[in-house]
């Protein structure tokens, strides 16, 4: 009897769509190729998967979305609960946020600061939330040791680009140290330039001890190998066209098959379409972020830019720049992008990165970028994520809304989502585990306000100190 051939990676059957927009397109497509990110270009061939779903089959837990959260959920269902999951992905594995981000893992989730946690929920809850996110970063760190993802540890450098921002960082640092016992410190400009990087805009910085750069496509592929190794089935090219409840199970219909599941865990992030499920409609505001990676810097360029660190770095703009020196001496930088998918390829948005790079590092003005791409970020309307069961008694769960801080916390979110899908209570009653993401039924029209806010933020960010 002939043996079956070894499983292979799903090959895309449709081209990359640079204009995909989750608020406008009812579905993310089927079998689309990856965005042209540096990460995908350098990660090597994707690992084997289980091909598109075909025919009718059963599973205990269906996971929708094969990014960091979905794959981590499948992995922890197996490791922690002995449950075999089936992951459904519309396009190629980790096609969305997980291969388009900047690869910055920070000790954070959502977009609110610790001071805002206290103002919104009180100090006791804020301390518990800090402990949860810290536990998530420790889990993420452990996984980077297990999975081949080019980790760059050392912390996070938060560059103050104006004196007024440095004063805000002083207050943040004092709060982090005094209330949360989190050992941050304020650096004068001279120390930033001497020991870290010669960012020409820096007037000082906050340094926090936890931060990790990763190669996100390699991390996603590592999750894929680990999840399949634990028994999960991963089906790319299988968009979920319908989720229907029947008796005590869910029926998920894809173009090629039908999956019956006891529970459904949704982890589609910034690529959550408006028609995926009624519970998710207009609960995420997808925001575009641009990234580019330069050619390798020469020794003289590294000397001119003063890079003595490979830690992850952000600045204090509301429309922030985030950047770092990669293991092969290329510089990655990201920031805001277009408002809509239709405008995503407009060269004006790439020019924002070129301009920021030149202002921070004049020696690199005009440097060639070998890779440029953009992707959607899952920003919730209250700026914090949720890992929840939206309706008691129905085995439907979701985890999303990280607001650009999901590279590290997605590991913990996947573990928490797995616990919910396994019928286990979460350890604490935290705000991110309670209630649903707030809904905005007119989300597509909020982009008019987003455009106005971007102009306001830009004026404020670039205004000189008084």
- Write down how many β-strands occur, each being a DSSP E stretch of 2 or more residues: 19
Amount of helix: 25-40%
Name the shape in a single word.
globular
Largest sheet, in brief, is: 8 strands, mixed
Low-confidence stretches: none
The amount of beta strand, in percent, is 15-25%
Order of helices and strands: HEHEEHHEEHEHEEHEEEEEHEEEHEEEHH
Mean pLDDT: 96
Brief characterization of the structure:
This protein is α+β, with helices and mostly antiparallel strands and 466 residues long. 30% of the residues lie in helices and 22% in strands. Strands 1, 2, 9, 10, 11, 12, 18 and 19 form an 8-stranded mixed beta sheet that branches. An 8-stranded mixed beta sheet has the order 6-7-5-14-15-16-13-17, sandwiched between helices. Strands 3-8-4 form a 3-stranded antiparallel beta sheet.
Write out key terms for the chains shown.
single chain; 466 residues; alpha+beta; eight-stranded mixed sheet; 19 strands; 30% helix; 22% strand
Word description of this protein:
With 466 residues, the protein is of the alpha+beta class. It is built from eleven helices and 19 strands. It has helices at 38-42, 68-81, 114-121, 123-146, 163-178, 189-195, 216-229, 299-305, 347-360, 406-421, 446-462, and strands spanning 55-64, 85-88, 104-106, 152-153, 156-160, 185-188, 204-208, 211-213, 233-235, 242-246, 249-253, 257-266, 284-294, 312-315, 322-325, 331-336, 369-380, 386-388, 396-400. A hairpin with a 3-residue loop joins strand 11 and strand 12. Helix 2 runs parallel beside helix 7 (216-229) and helix 4 (123-146) packs across helix 10 (406-421). The longest helix has 24 residues, at 123-146. The protein is globular.
């Amino acid at each position: 009897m002939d043996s079956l051939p070894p499983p292979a990676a799903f090959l895309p059957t449709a081209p990359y769509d640079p204009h995909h927009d989750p608020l406008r397109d009812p579905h993310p497509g089927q079998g689309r190729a990856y965005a042209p990110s540096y990460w995908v270009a350098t990660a090597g061939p994707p690992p084997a998967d289980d091909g598109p779903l075909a025919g009718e089959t059963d599973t205990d837990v269906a996971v929708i979305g094969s990014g960091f959260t979905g794959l981590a959920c499948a992995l922890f269902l197996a490791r922690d609960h002995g449950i075999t999951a089936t992951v459904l992905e519309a396009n190629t594995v980790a096609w969305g946020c997980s291969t388009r981000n900047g690869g910055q893992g920070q000790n954070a989730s959502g977009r609110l600061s610790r001071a805002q946690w206290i103002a919104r929920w009180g100090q006791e809850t804020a301390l518990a939330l800090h402990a949860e996110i810290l536990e998530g970063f420790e889990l993420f760190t452990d996984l980077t040791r297990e999975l081949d993802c080019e980790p760059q540890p050392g912390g996070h450098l938060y560059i103050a680009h104006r004196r007024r921002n440095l004063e805000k960082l002083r207050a943040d640092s004092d709060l982090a140290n005094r209330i949360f016992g989190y050992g941050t410190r304020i650096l004068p400009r001279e120390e930033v330039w001497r020991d870290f990087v010669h960012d020409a805009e820096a007037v000082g910085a906050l340094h926090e001890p936890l931060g990790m750069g990763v190669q996100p496509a390699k991390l996603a592929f590592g999750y894929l190998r680990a999840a399949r190794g634990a028994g999960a089935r991963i089906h790319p090219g299988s968009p979920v066209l319908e989720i229907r409840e029947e008796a005590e199970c869910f029926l998920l219909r894809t173009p090629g098959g039908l999956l019956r599941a006891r529970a459904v865990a949704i982890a589609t992030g910034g690529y959550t379409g408006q028609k995926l499920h009624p519970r998710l409609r207009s609960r995420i505001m997808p925001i575009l972020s641009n990234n580019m990676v330069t050619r390798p810097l020469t020794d003289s360029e590294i000397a001119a830019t003063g890079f003595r660190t490979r830690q992850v770095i952000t600045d204090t703009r509301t429309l922030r720049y985030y950047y770092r020196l990669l293991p092969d001496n290329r510089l990655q930088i990201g920031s805001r992008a277009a408002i809509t998918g239709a405008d995503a390829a407009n060269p004006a948005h790439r020019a924002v990165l070129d301009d920021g790079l030149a202002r921070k590092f004049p020696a690199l003005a005009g440097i060639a970028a070998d890779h440029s791409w953009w992707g959607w970020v899952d920003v919730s309307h209250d700026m914090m994520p949720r890992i929840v069961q939206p309706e008691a008694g129905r085995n439907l769960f979701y985890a999303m809304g990280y607001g650009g801080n999901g590279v590290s916390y997605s590991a913990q979110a996947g573990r928490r989502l797995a616990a919910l899908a396994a019928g286990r209570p979460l350890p604490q009653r935290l705000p991110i585990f309670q209630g649903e993401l707030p809904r905005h039924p007119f989300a597509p029209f909020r982009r008019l306000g987003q455009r106005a806010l971007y102009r306001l933020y830009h004026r404020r960010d670039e205004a000189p100190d008084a």
